[in-house]
Each structure stands twice: as C-alpha cells, then as structure tokens.
Design a protein that fits this description.
Layout lengths: L5 H4 L3 H12 L9 E5 L5 H9 L4 E6 L2 H10 L4 E4 L12 E5 L8 H11 L5 E7 L5 H10 L20 H8 L3 E15 L2 H9 L4 H5 L3 H18 L8 E14 L5
Parallel strand pairs: 1-2, 1-4, 2-3, 4-5
Antiparallel strand pairs: 5-7, 6-7
Length: 259
C-alpha cells in the first residue's frame, strides 16, 4: 500500500500553501525558538514557517518517507524525521504547527489535548484541518465505494476522522491554553474542469480508497468517481469550475504561571 505521493499532492501547490500562510499570520509569537511542523508532508508548510520565522529551528515530522524526501529538497535548512502525529513527542517546542493532518489522526481530540498540555508557558499550538466531509467531493467517494464492484474500498472512509464543532476544540485546548482563536474559512478554488477536482483529491482524500483496490478496479473506481464529480460540479457559463473547500483553524496559547 502506498502511503503518500508527493508528486500528486503538490499538483495544486499554491492552493495548498495558502491555508498555512493564513494560519501563520494569526500566530501570536514573534520569534519562536523551536518549531515542530507536525505532518509536514512535502514541506509546503515548512517553507512558509521558514519565511515567517527565519531564525527558528524547525523540525518537520511525517509518516511518509516519500513526503519527507520532497520536504528535505524544498526546505534544506530544516531537520526532518519519520513520526506519527498521534504520538510524536513535542516536548521542547514552543510552536507546534499542524497543517491538514488531524483529520487523519485517530481520536484526534485526544492528540490535540496531549499537544496542548506539552506546550511550555507561552507556547502555541496552531492547526488547520479540512472540514469537507459533507461536501459533494467526499460524499461521492463514499457513494461510489458503496457500489458492489468496489467493496474493497468500502471501509476506507472510516480512516478519516470526523471534524467536530468549535466547542469540541475549545474544550480540548482550554485548559491549559488561555487564549484560543477558532475560525472556519471556505475557499472557493477556481479550477479548469471537474477533472481537476479529481486530481486534487487523488493526492489526499481519495488516496485511502484507491490504495485499497487493485490496478484495474482502481481505474474503474476513478472512472465512476470522475463521472459523479462532473455531474456534481458543472462548469459555469464562463468555463470555470468552482470547488468549495471548508477548513477549520485553531491557534491556542498556553498561559503563564503567576509568580
């Protein structure tokens, strides 16, 4: 089974990097000393962190060697290590940054609680996660996988964590964090065709379904899914296809102990 493919993931590099930049802009730290880029993927977020914090030590962590190899090329002045966001030791980092990773972490609220409690005084946990499970792109994945011919892919949807309400994340972060900033943004990505939507999700959300299938069945699944996406996302009169993509953001800062 293939874990991740950096080449496919980076097809829409500019669009994927934008949430990282917008999340970084809300971080209330001028000069973090050590940054953990948790689930760094191919290094898009690592590059944005380096631009924002040129003097910090940055460590990128991901479960995929393919992604880490791409990240090391993209951000050669950072350190990288294989690790799981669910259990990686974040002790000693005053900024923990997690871009588009917690929806793949089992019991992700537990992981968020653990990371928040490991922050030093004044430390920050900042994360962003796709919140598009109810969008047509993802509902159609489950619908196609439910067809008898694709039974092997049926359980793949369970690999993705359900994203909760703002109150769930506030409760996970506070205490120990005393400053919690939560918001949602829906990006309306303007693409050339419904096929571009399929290419987009091939690099992430569609991956577990495809990994569960043999080569021929994978081809048949993609054909069925591509047709369903084309029906759900028709082109506008001007030729563009709009791909709405909601994301949940959080920035939390641990309080200072009173003397």
């Amino acid at each position: 089974m293939q874990l991740w493919d950096a080449r496919r993931y980076d097809r829409f590099e500019a669009e994927r990097a934008r949430p990282s930049r917008e999340l970084i802009a809300r971080i209330p730290l001028r000069e973090p000393r050590r940054i953990l880029d948790l689930g760094c993927g191919s290094g898009l977020s690592t590059v944005e962190l380096r631009r924002a914090f040129p003097n910090a030590e940055i460590v990128g962590v991901d479960i995929s060697p393919d992604m880490l190899a791409a990240a090391a090329k993209r951000a050669p002045d950072a350190a990288f290590a294989v690790g799981d966001a669910a259990s990686f030791d974040s002790d000693g980092f005053d900024l923990v940054f997690a871009n588009a990773v917690f929806h793949w972490v089992s019991d992700h609220l537990k992981a968020i609680r653990r990371l928040a409690r490991a922050l030093p005084e004044g430390g920050v946990l900042a994360f962003q996660t796709p919140d598009n499970d109810d969008e047509p792109s993802h509902r159609l994945m489950r619908a196609v996988a439910a067809r008898p011919d694709f039974a092997a892919a049926r359980a793949a949807g369970a690999a993705r964590e359900k994203i909760g309400a703002f109150a769930d994340y506030d409760a996970a972060l506070c205490p120990p964090c005393v400053e919690v900033d939560l918001w949602r943004t829906t990006y309306a990505h303007r693409l050339d065709s419904p096929g571009d939507i399929v290419k987009w999700v091939e690099g992430a959300g569609l991956r577990p379904y495809l990994d569960a299938l043999d080569a021929q069945t994978r081809t048949d699944f993609l054909a069925a899914y591509t047709q369903a996406v084309a029906d759900a996302y028709p082109a506008l009169a001007n030729g563009a296809v709009l791909f709405p993509f909601p994301r949940l953001f959080a920035v939390a800062r641990r309080g200072l102990t009173k003397a």
